[in-house]
């Protein structure tokens, strides 16, 4: 097993990509702290993974001290900490005209500052296990769709954090920090957003080729499979790297309308 006996905190793992990562990590021998905002969904995930393999922590990442409490939950339950996956994020529509400072600050608080806080809180334990951090970004971090301005900026800042700490923490503490940037992924929340925007229930079955040359968008399990490499010892000394997981060169932007 590629993650045998490793203990991993995965934020935002009650649904979507985070849930898929948690499931794959347990399949590879890890034990996980499942985190999110949905108690019922989180309890279902823990039940599916097995109570001996997972523990649940429900709390908003914008709350003061949540990072320390997540780390404490891992240590109290499993006795060690080997990795952190910063997956949780607020994906909210906004552009220059619809974004005020309070909204922007909240997006940055959850998507950028919360990962920083969790890395900082986890560092003493990650240093002891020569562990790692995997940040889950977005191809939107390179520029972003017009109506994902605040979200895109928060993911761009996360990339800089990954590059900076990937160098610093690796040299000083032996802790690797890397990032994967998923493209368009069919998560529960993405399906709901598209439904709210007026798309048909089966919209994902007919995605234009410019977005999905393969005929479909990505599955959460495919992102999880990629995540395991960065969490496993097989990725060796690689640190400070950012990898885009997408099938076309439209890096975070829609093509212009004719």
TrEMBL record:
A Pfam entry, by short name: adh_short_C2
InterPro entries linked to this entry: NAD(P)-bd_dom_sf (IPR036291), Sc_DH/Rdtase_CS (IPR020904), SDR_fam (IPR002347)
Signal peptide per UniProt: none
CDD domains, sorted: SDR_c (cd05233)
Protein family per UniProt: Belongs to the short-chain dehydrogenases/reductases (SDR) family.
Matching PANTHER family: EG:BACR7A4.14 PROTEIN-RELATED, ZGC:101858
Name of the molecule in the record: SDR family oxidoreductase
Organism: Larkinella knui
Lineage: Bacteria, Pseudomonadati, Bacteroidota, Cytophagia, Cytophagales
């Amino acid at each position: 097993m590629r993650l045998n006996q490793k203990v991993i905190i995965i934020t935002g793992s009650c649904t979507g990509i985070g849930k898929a990562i948690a499931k794959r990590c347990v399949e590879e021998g890890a034990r996980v702290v499942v985190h999110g905002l949905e108690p019922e969904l989180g309890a279902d995930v823990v039940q599916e993974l097995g109570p001996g393999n997972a523990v649940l922590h429900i709390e908003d990442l914008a709350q003061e001290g949540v990072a320390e409490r997540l780390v404490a939950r891992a240590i109290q339950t499993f006795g060690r900490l080997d990795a952190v996956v910063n997956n949780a994020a607020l994906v909210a529509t906004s552009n220059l005209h619809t974004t005020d400072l309070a909204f922007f600050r909240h997006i940055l608080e959850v998507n950028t500052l919360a990962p920083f806080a969790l890395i900082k809180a986890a560092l003493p334990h990650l240093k002891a296990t020569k562990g790692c951090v995997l940040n889950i970004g977005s191809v939107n971090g390179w520029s972003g769709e017009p109506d994902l301005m605040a979200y895109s900026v928060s993911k761009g800042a996360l990339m800089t954090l990954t590059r900076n700490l990937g160098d610093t923490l690796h040299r000083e503490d032996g802790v690797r920090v890397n990032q994967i940037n998923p493209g368009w992924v069919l998560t529960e929340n993405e399906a709901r957003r598209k439904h709210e925007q007026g798309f048909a229930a089966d919209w994902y079955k007919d995605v234009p080729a410019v977005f999905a040359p393969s005929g479909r968008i990505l599955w959460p399990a495919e992102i999880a499979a990629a995540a395991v490499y960065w969490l496993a010892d097989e990725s060796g000394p690689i640190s400070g790297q950012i990898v885009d997981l997408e099938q076309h060169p439209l890096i975070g932007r829609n093509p212009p309308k004719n």
